[in-house]
Amino acid sequence: MNLRVIPCLLLHKGGLVKSVKFKDYKYVGDPINAVKIFNEKEADEISIIDISATAERRSPNYSLINEIVSEAFMPVAYGGGVCEPDQLKKIFQSGVEKIIVNKSAHTTPQLISEGAKLFGSQSIVVSIDVKKTMFKGHRVFTDNGKNDTGLSPSSFAKQMESMGAGEILLNSIDRDGTYKGYDHELIYSVSHAVSIPVVAVGGASSLDDFRIARESGASAVAAGSMFVFKRPHQAVLINYPSQQEFDKTLFKKEQ
Questions:
Q1: Nearest 5°: phi and psi at 62?
Q2: What is the pairing mode between strands 124-133 and 46-50?
Q3: What is the fold of 4-249?
Q4: pLDDT for the residue numbered 153
Q5: Does residue 130 contact residue 148 with C-beta atoms inside 8 Å?
Q6: Can you give the pLDDT at residue 206?
Q7: Residue 235: Cβ within 10 Å count
Q8: Domain ranges of the chain
Q9: pLDDT at position 222
């Protein structure tokens, strides 16, 4: 069974940053340079999310998106500031293969169905950011982890699938940037509630984490800190495992 492994990069004011639990942003470099390195590393695909676009109520940075796509040798998914069908069209025209929607999935869910109808479900990804609350279990949050919607991730994922989403990007806020491994309980509950692919993100520290996420039901895995930092000192060093490393850990035949 193959597993897509996706660098997930965060844009903030034009530069790349990495967070810990959606806070404490650290600048990690220029997005174009990062894309060129991931080209050389032969990454499966790449996700670029502008985390400040929606917060600042501005449109996507189309010129930067065009530049990223022109440099990328792998499929690109983009998210951030997308709230209208015309924006979907303009981004897809740049060569982006998937658009990631987060806040608009709550405020204007018809964008999901319109996007799926116009461009195909496979091109519309709904990003679901999740925290584990003390008394109510996992809950969906918006606005970079600030607002509790009161929704359960599984029920919201099912709703988004019914609206036409072709993929779920499932992000554990509690695990983000911690290297503590994915939230396997969360992955299992959401992946078994929907039939569309679930991409797990938040907490990866090793290839074993990828394998365990797959066993929990993830169709693909994404990571940020693991691919932009060298531990233990968190020096910025963009990296991506070789095919041989993947084969050894992920693709070995069951004994």
A1: -65, -35
A2: unpaired
A3: TIM Barrel (3.20.20)
A4: 98
A5: no
A6: 93
A7: 9
A8: 4-249
A9: 97
CA distance 144 to 28: 19
Q: DSSP secondary-structure letter at 122?
A: G
Helix (H) or strand (E) run with residue 235 in it: strand 235-236
Written as one letter, the residue type at 216 is: S
Tokens 């609350």 -> residue: 133
Q: CB under 8 Å to 78, separation ≥6 — which residues?
A: 47, 48, 49, 50, 60, 65, 68, 91, 96, 98, 99, 100
How far is 81 from 51, CA to CA, in rounded Å? 8
Q: For the chain, which ranges sit under pLDDT 50?
A: 1, 253-255
Provide the 10 A C-beta neighbour count for residue 39. 14
Identify residue 109 by its one-letter amino acid code.
P
Among the listed residues 50, 129, 176, 183, the single catalytic one is 129
Q: Which two tokens stand for residue 214?
A: 């797959």
129 counts as catalytic: yes
- Measured in Å, how far apart are the chain's first and last C-alpha atoms? 14
Phi-psi region of 11 (alpha: psi -120 to 50; beta: other; left: phi over 0): beta
Q: Please provide residue 98's backbone torsions phi and psi, each rounded to the nearest 5 degrees.
A: -140, 145
Backbone phi, psi, residue 57, to 5°: 55, 45
DSSP one-letter string for 30-79: -HHHHHHHHHHTT-S-EEEEETTTTTTT----HHHHHHHHHH-SS-EEEE
- Residues 6+ away with beta carbon under 8 Å from 9: 16, 31, 34, 46, 47, 48, 49, 224, 228
Could you check whether the bond before residue 109 is cis, i.e. omega within 30 degrees of 0? no
Q: Which residue has the tokens 């990454």?
A: 43
236: its two tokens = 């910025």
